[in-house]
Amino acid sequence: MSENHVLQGAYHVLERTSEAFPEPLRNIANPPEKLYVVGYPEALVPGLAVIGARKATPYGRSCARRFARIAAEKGVVVISGGARGCDSEAHRAALDAQGRTVVFLGGGCDCIYPAEHERLFQRVVDNGGAVASEHPWGFAPLPYTFRARNRLIAGLADAVLIVEAGLPSGTFSTADEALEAGKEVLVVPGAITSESSRGSNRLLFQGATPIVDDDSFEDAVLRACGMLKRPSAGFAMPHSDNPIVCAVLAAPMDNDSLLELAIAEYGAASARTKLMESLAEAEASHIIARQPDGKWGPVMPTG
Fold this sequence. Notes:
The chain is an alpha/beta fold. It has 10 helices and 11 strands. It has 2 domains: 11-223, 3-Layer(aba) Sandwich (Rossmann fold), CATH 3.40.50; 229-298, no CATH class. The longest helix has 16 residues, at 58-73.
């Protein structure tokens, strides 16, 4: 191992043929033969990628923090590239929310870049997350490796949230990888007078999903990631005593109709949280599932 080894924790090498290798990354274009990981390989699960400008404005940084925190609080793993600006803000917000986060680096995991993020990456490992790379220990980051790294971020994520991007922008390569893989691209709009938001607004013009407030973000993450906030140990899976699950078992329902029901049952303040928890728990129990038309419906017995 390289003398640049700085992160404390378990070091792993995951072969593409091993069970520990994350399944989504087997199916991307040019999948890596190996992943080099510091921390917890079990953190390498589908989640939400949060990316944006390195030279981020206060607006971009605050949006990265805001939405990464909300995702982490709902149990969604936050994935990013560990760069200055929006990436690092997303990682910090996820950690502050007691969530897991994954960092994909352009070089080896023992060649920290940027160097000032060593303490941040150590927090990622210490809090159950992972710092990962397709490059071996001692591999110095090079300009071309960062763009290649972006396919791993997009490949592992269920959806990619772009909080701020100018033109031209390296962020676009991650958006392109996500679109090519059939992942949803979410974008926070910016002022049309802001150079830092020209790329973001262009993606919206091209058809990306706009994130205009917390509600639109939660709806998009629910749609893309499906399972939010796993139940704690001993929590009974919802079934006959849960009005939301009962309604879905009676007839398929879309998100808007389910939200109306949740508001009627639980009140506006906690409706969205209750709805997400109910759907996630029932889906994990294989009671309900998302149907091709986007509605939630009962899982049909087979055989």
